[in-house]
Amino acid sequence: MPQKLSATARRDKAARDLAFAKTPARRAKKAHSQREARANPSAAKGKDYDHKDKRWETPNANRGNDGEGTKKESGNNYNI
Predict the structure, then answer these.
(1) Long-range contacts formed by 48-55: CB under 8 A, 24+ apart
(2) DSSP helix/strand/coil, 12
(3) Residue 4 to residues 22, 48, 52, 74: CA-CA distances in angstroms?
């Protein structure tokens, strides 16, 4: 279910999300995921690349630091 945001809040969130997606770490992770997916498309189908575990996982499993929450992994730089 999408968030119910006002028009102003929606624009502000879109700007924040875009700024985060364009950080050097996020761009490197995205490029690495794309390279891995092109190298093995059958393994990547419907999956997300987990840069911490270095394997393909379902999008559901690749959220929230494997059930431990995101505070613990805040600021970690994984090898790409």
Answers:
(1) 51/78, 51/79, 51/80, 52/76, 52/78
(2) helix
(3) 25, 26, 32, 27
Chain centroid offset of residue 14 CA: 16
Task: Provide the sign of the torsion angle of the four alpha carbons 11, 61, 52, 28, taken in this order.
Answer: negative
Q: Calculate the average pLDDT of the chain.
A: 89
Contacts of 46 (CB under 8 A, 6+ apart): 58
Which tens digit of pLDDT belongs to each residue from 44-70?
999 999 888 889 999 988 888 777 877
Other Cβ atoms less than 10 A from the Cβ of 33: the count is 18
Do residues 48 and 57 lie in contact, with contact meaning Cβ atoms separated by under 8 Å? Answer: yes
| Tens digits of residue pLDDT in 4-16 | 999 999 999 999 9
